[in-house]
Amino acid sequence: MGVVRISEFNIFKFRLVLRQPLIIGEYRLTHRTGFIIELHAENNYVALGEISPLPGLSREGMTQAETEMAFLRSSVTGRDLPDHLEEISGGFNNWLRGYNLVPSVRFGFETAVLNLLAATRGVPLCKLISDSPRDSIAINGLLTGSHDQIMQKAAKLLEMGYMAFKLKVGRNSIQEDIEITRDLRQLIGDDTTLRLDANRAWSIDDALAFGKAVADHKIDYIEEPVKTLALLKKLINQIEVSLPLALDESLLELTPEALPSVSGVKAIVLKPTLLGFEKVMQFVRPAIALGMTSVVSSAFESGVGLETLAQMAACVNVMDVPAGLDTLDWFEEDLLVDPLRIKMGRLWVNELPDPCPKIRRHLVETI
């Protein structure tokens, strides 16, 4: 393939209504805001990327992201893409190092560039970056709320064919979380995958007490049970730990090269909006060497971002590892004209739209 030049760089802003408030730390979100970037190349090739910093998790906000996008647009429009970016082996870092971009901008721009390369070659993103992507991926259903709300949604997801579930814990008392976890396992049966996410809610003693109480309930792993990375490293070395552990927020404090320092964890939960596309793939490689499972997960992106995450998830594991992409039903209306559809608890990557899916233009404004 010849040289690909960015001939046009458009920026759109969106604001999607949430069906229910999203609580992240001290933030209570009723809308999800973000940006879509649209890159053009010669011969009418077009591709999209999403930039949506998430309050409470992202260290940057919308204002910083918009400033960086505007500078990036003025810098790269009319320029050729460097060679071999699709190898995800440091090419983006070499190219973009001088711009010092925040993770959400890196992810959206890297995504748009890779989708543009995929479009020029006539392949989906997953086949651009992998020789053997999976045709479909399992999805873990996200469960949060009161005891009754959790049980009702779990029952509905079971009827829809879901075989993997992720339960948010740490917002109730330890005893209440234990009871919900036990009741949920009884409801969904022993043949399903059950994951837990505490979002750094507990002390080491609380985490040990909870783990001991649900140790016989076939928990796949629990994400971030304690308040800091330092405490998590201490917890890894506790012989009393009875649950497999997973990293999520801690990855913001680690480099891929430092992953061996937490080699006792079972899985890493990768949110590309918080890390960047290339950095996520750089975490995957040492994780494989350490025997860790890599789980691609959303940060409540629109369907534009989720489509990219699905393509990534199809590439990072040989085994069928459920991905954390069950967030679209939080939106009253999605950006995609043809929304992603989960069938029988799976998302069929080989049925996803082309690298430039159509978006509902009435939901965006041009920047």
Search tags:
single chain; 367 residues; alpha/beta; Enolase-like, domain 1; TIM Barrel; 14 strands; 22% strand
Mind explaining what this structure looks like?
The protein is of the alpha/beta class and 367 residues long. It has helices spanning 62-76, 91-96, 103-121, 125-129, 147-159, 174-188, 204-213, 229-236, 272-275, 277-290, 303-316; strands at residues 8-24, 27-41, 45-51, 136-138, 141-143, 164-168, 193-197, 219-223, 245-247, 267-270, 293-296, 342-343, 346-348, 364-366. The chain has two domains: 8-124 and 361-366, Enolase-like, domain 1, CATH 3.30.390.10; 136-351, Enolase-like C-terminal domain (TIM Barrel), CATH 3.20.20.120. A seven-stranded parallel β-sheet has the order 5-6-7-8-9-10-11. It has a four-stranded antiparallel β-sheet with strand order 3-2-1-14, with helices on both faces. A three-stranded antiparallel β-sheet has the order 4-13-12, covered by helices on one side. Helix 5 (147-159) packs parallel to helix 6 and helix 6 (174-188) packs parallel to helix 7.
Figure out the total of helices.
11
N-to-C SSE string, H for helix and E for strand: EEEHHHHEEHEHEHEHEEHHEHEEE
Structurally, the number of domains stands at 2
Name given to the CATH architecture of the largest domain: Alpha-Beta Barrel
Kindly state the number of beta strands: 14
Helix and strand composition category = alpha/beta
How much β-strand is present in the residues?
15-25%
Low-confidence stretches: none
Question: How would you describe the shape?
Answer: globular
Distance between the termini: 32 Å
Find the CATH topology of the largest domain. TIM Barrel
